[in-house]
Amino acid sequence: MIELMPYSPQSSLLDDALRVYARVWPQRDPDVARETFTRYTGYLDFCGFVALVDDLPVGVGYGAKSYPGVPWHDLVAPRLGEDHPAFRIVELAVVKEYQGKGIGGKLHDRLLATQTCSRALVSTGVTNQRARAIYERRGWQYLHAAFDAPDETQLYVIMGKELGTGNQ
Q1: For the segment 85-141, what is each residue's pLDDT rounded down to a tens digit?
Q2: I need a surface site. Which of 18, 27, 59, 158 has the fewest CB within 10 A?
Q3: Which uninterrupted H or E stretch holds 36?
Q4: What kind of fold does domain 2-162 have according to CATH?
Q5: Full-prediction pTM beyond 0.85?
């Protein structure tokens, strides 16, 4: 059974979220990940969940409102325009052994179901076909085909989804 548990900076689930992230992205700096996860909990409309299977953390998803002053917002503003109020999915990750079991989809749907924004945004690697396929199946549209983020070695796509009743 898949259980989605909300986390906050004071919750022990934040450590579980970071462990999942480290398993999915072992090459990334864990101190930077902790700082980023913690910083986002302070942004408007933050929402984060850890997916548990038999009490084992196997997935994480979180996001927050995109607005001026948030680094990602300011980075994509030249591509999307300054006024692009939206909820942004920042991370959606499932450990390899549990991929393909609907966990990423459940995290995605729960994140969007909590939102009051009328639009959602996400960016993912151009070559991350699995993630792109999940978003495409759920009705996301491409807003920018390839942008180069500072300090990153790959190109990213930006996708958007209009949210309405059901948000899925």
Answers
A1: 799 999 999 999 999 999 999 999 999 999 888 999 999 999 999 899 999 999 999
A2: 27
A3: helix 30-40
A4: Aminopeptidase (3.40.630)
A5: yes
